[in-house]
Write a structure and sequence with these properties.
With about 325 residues, the chain is an alpha/beta fold. The chain is about 35% helix and about 15% strand. The protein is built from 13 helices and twelve strands. It has a seven-stranded parallel beta sheet with strand order 8-7-6-9-10-11-12, sandwiched between helices. Strand 6, helix 6 and strand 7 form a beta-alpha-beta unit. Helix 1 packs across helix 12. The chain is globular and about 60 Å long. The chain starts with a strand and ends with a helix.
């Protein structure tokens, strides 16, 4: 099986190469380019493609992949909101993902953002480098006793809640399917209105879909405590960035930590230090002293990368064991 690996950075290649040592019948060919309508022709002649969070797997791209005889899409991430699943199903192209690479990696990064914003370590670091040891403006608060709202209690949300329990926080959760072990650990499931009204910190750990798109907006921000801290390590479009900026200006949002951004596909995972970033909303976010933005690195730990590589190879191996009637359907379509 010959697989075109898109959005592949050196660290991806290293871990995928190591994982593929035990899969001699899978040949991986690496492309640093993102998959898009402009680059989809690179997939011609391959059996499958492997993609990441900002690759374009919309209908026009999938139609091209189908015409090339692509038999599978192996996502190297948990989310698949960038895949037109209806179109993939219509062309009988199975879509694999990595549901559990290392939930604690993202959860711990969310906590890192909380701690940086609270204790203002990003500002203190630069002060000390400049010989400024004054503490004025760096005051934080004790996490113990604070109310933390967690929206989405899948694997990552559960890991986040356990950590915040360890800090001595009151943990409020919202999810369509409550997790009983979290309740036994002291978490409380409430409706969104209650979570917004009572939380000092709100962390997003839910998937991006039609019901969660711009979940954080002018209306929901208006229901929150003045000075609330909002953390997003899930998907950028959960937060309406312009309306979050309005909340920062009004003081309704006291702290904002983002590891993801709605328009990140144009800039994240690339060295943009010598380029002008033509995104006025993003540039404005960076001017706030109470905003910390990281470049979608929540997943980026050694354990997570190895799990992603291992699961991606295992998913591709599954293609060979699909039921015969499915294989016949693939052959008929392609």
């Amino acid at each position: 099986m010959k697989v075109a690996v898109f959005s592949c950075k050196p660290y991806d290649k290293r871990t995928l190469e190591a994982a593929s040592e035990t899969a001699a019948d899978i040949e991986l060919v690496y492309f640093e380019s993102r998959l898009s309508p402009e680059t989809v022709s690179l997939a011609k002649g391959y059996d499958a493609v492997s993609c990441f969070v900002n690759d374009d797997l919309s209908r026009p791209v999938l139609e091209q992949l189908a015409s090339f005889g692509i038999k599978a899409i192996a996502m190297r991430c948990a989310g698949y909101n960038n895949v037109d699943l209806y179109c993939a199903k219509a062309y009988a192209i199975p879509v694999f993902h990595v549901p559990d690479y290392s939930p604690t990696s993202v959860a711990e990064h969310a906590v890192a953002l909380i701690m940086a914003l609270n204790r203002k370590t990003h500002r203190a670091y630069h002060r000390v480098k400049e010989g400024n040891f004054a503490l004025e403006g760096l005051m934080g608060f004790n996490l113990e006793g604070k109310t933390v709202g967690c929206i989405g209690t899948g694997r990552i949300g559960q890991a986040f809640c356990r950590i915040m329990n360890g800090f001595g926080c009151r943990v409020l959760c919202y999810d369509l399917a409550p997790n009983e072990p979290l309740v036994s650990q002291g978490a409380e499931y409430v409706d969104l209105e209650t979570l917004y009204a009572e939380s000092d910190i709100i962390s997003l750990h839910c998937p991006l879909n039609a019901s969660t798109h711009h979940l954080i907006n002018q209306s929901s921000i208006g229901k929150m405590k003045k000075g609330v801290m909002i953390i997003n390590t899930s998907r950028g479009a959960l937060v309406n960035a312009q309306e979050a900026i309005d909340g920062l200006y009004s003081g309704k949002i006291g702290y904002l930590g983002l590891d993801v951004y709605e328009q990140e596909g144009k800039i994240f995972f690339e060295d943009m230090s010598d380029h002008i970033i033509y995104d006025s909303v993003f540039q404005l976010l960076l001017t706030f002293p109470n905003v910390v933005v990281t470049g979608h690195q929540g997943y980026f730990t050694d354990i997570a990368l190895h799990h992603i590589a291992d699961t991606t190879l295992a998913n591709l191996n599954q293609l060979k064991s699909l039921p015969e009637d499915y294989q016949r359907e693939l052959t008929a379509i392609h």
